[in-house]
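Regression report. Comparing outputs from two consecutive submissions.

Submission 1:
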Amino acid sequence: MSKRRGTSLFFTFLIGILIWFAPHSESIPIKAWHMLAIFIGTIIGVILKPFSMGALSIIAIAITTLSGTLTLDETLAGFQSSIVWLVVFAFFISSGFIKTGLGSRIAYYFVVLFGKRTLSLGYSLLCSDLLLAPAVPSVTARTGGVVYPVAKGLAKSFGSDPELGTQKRIGSFLTFVAYQGSVITSGMFLTAMAANPFLAGLLTEMGYSISWGQWALAALLPGLISLIVMPLIVYKMMPPGIKETPDAPAHARKKLAELGRLSGKECLMGGIFILLLFLWVFGTYFHIHATVAALLGLALIIIFEILDWKDIVNESSAWDTFIWFSILIMLATSLSRLGFTPWLSEQAVRLVGGMSWQGAFAILALIYFYVHYFFASNTAHVGAIFPAFLMVAVSLGTPPFYAILVLAFFSSLSGGLTQYGSGPAPIYYGSGYIEIKDWWKVGFVLSIVNIVIWVGIGSFWWKIIGLI
């Protein structure tokens, strides 16, 4: 065991043990206190990373069961969640995009169409990400595996390379726009990021629900406005040295030529994707659950041999997500079921008592957003504090669905604050195109802009479409 891993593991268990044996309120059942210790220890482990998230989750359920905090059946309940299986199926579907090359082809097509100027080149990357987002629940796979290589290839084709000290010619702008775009698109669809279905699963356990169509419709207008405004701000604050890119379409055509003609499997993959979008949007009218629609899509992918069973078995990211996702849902919902989350919400209500719900919720929402400076994972952020913040907001008189929408979208948008804020962030930062001071400065400005757009314009939009 490395020294760093040993130190991280020590602090993870130390924090858990301190909480386990700390004095606690008599109004909280002892099992709820023990569950809190296990949960906080797991979240700290996710942040410090002594082991992978999946390994930490296995350790957590072993402690949960052996300590008698939960029974074995209660501990394994998360593996039955339909939301968990929706994510797993969507991971397999996204593999079809990558294996067939359809994802990269879509990205290069947009570059051909819109890539004659640096600013429009940035928008072409956003269009690719937006089109793929509904069917690719791993933001790391989508933007890190499809969009990022396109952005990096384009930057280097214009001689913009950190090793040459020319990163600001065009590369800094393209990579930062691509990353910040992924933060926005991840919030626009229930299936665009693993943390979103996790959040939806927590809602179900709390007695609320949000459908795929409701999520997408609520995010449509504020999301599109953010995608339009964000590149303009980055362009102003991180101006590229190259403003015109007449050679970009030629570079993209070369890459498309290397991909060859559109294959039959790519056409089939595109058709299945359209079918899935239809069922996710209108499935409720046909009594087809989103998870059932995803299962149908995966079955078609297997039937038409876009993926074979070996591809399914070897999709380690999907199975890894299945394990930690199921366990985190179980830990977070058990906190509520055992009585800790309701108790915490009562204490918070007492602290802000006397304030209007609008003022109190504004404070809660801002804390929820900016506390992400202390998280390196959207999923960890959601699991650690979303249920408690939602319960407090509702207890203060905030309309439940309004609170759900704001906190759900903030769960994604807050990932743009730092170079470690979400899965693909280290990939973009590791490219060397963006300095930390630029990331934090521009990221903070964009956070304010996104909050104004999603809460300000979003609130009017949600009223117009009848969601609140």
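Submission 2:
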Amino acid sequence: MHKEIDLDFELHAYVDGDLDEEAMARVEEYLARNPDTAAKVRAYLRQKDDLRKFARAEATEKEPPALRALARKLARRLKPGSIFPSRLAVVMPVMFAAGWLGHVAYAPLLEGPEYTNEVLQAHLLTSTDPAEILPLSPERTAKLFARINEMERLPDLHQFGFEPIGAQLIPTDEGMVLHVPYRDSSGTVISWFLLHDADEAEIRRTILHRQGVSIVSWQHDHSRYVMASALADEQLSQLAEFVDRATDNF
């Protein structure tokens, strides 16, 4: 990545999703050190995302096959992307008793974290096309946590029927954010995000809504957490309560 031509090639391949894991890691590390370039990459992603949304909005049963193929191709290749999530019917485990909700402290937000848009787009795309995200392994999990300077503590949600399906690093103006989506047998996806903050803070859980998605965020010490899903606020807040307590005990 020392030559300009190599940098340009890898950045374009990065937003097209055409790099292998090693090259993706190399680009992500470069973007973490160069926030101005990371901002340009996000702007380029948004432009391509607008094209994909246009193709999806125009798609009908009668339109030419070539246009439908373009929409599918863009949906498969672009990351992060934007789609309008379908309504999901979800039944949570019995242990989500009504009493839990009384312990969840959350309040509505108008804006949320500065990287909310990146979080939302990553969640929406992996909810629709899980193949967009690379699978997890013990070695890769350890490496991703190390890259964001955080202790390895992947939330265990199997008792609620959710299993991690992969992980990725998302460049933002605040730094690299680790994204781990979970999915249950019905196809419902919950996204968990973690960012290391140079400044220590205690911020209670707050919730906001974007494009049919509930987004809960909070911070302990140097760790910022976000969870996103199309679940009802109460269900997602209860999951956030569980994750909050579990990660706080590490």
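Expected: both submissions complete independently.
Actual: both completed, but the second showed a warning that disappeared on reload.
Relevant detail on submission 2: The chain has two domains: 4-77, 98-248.
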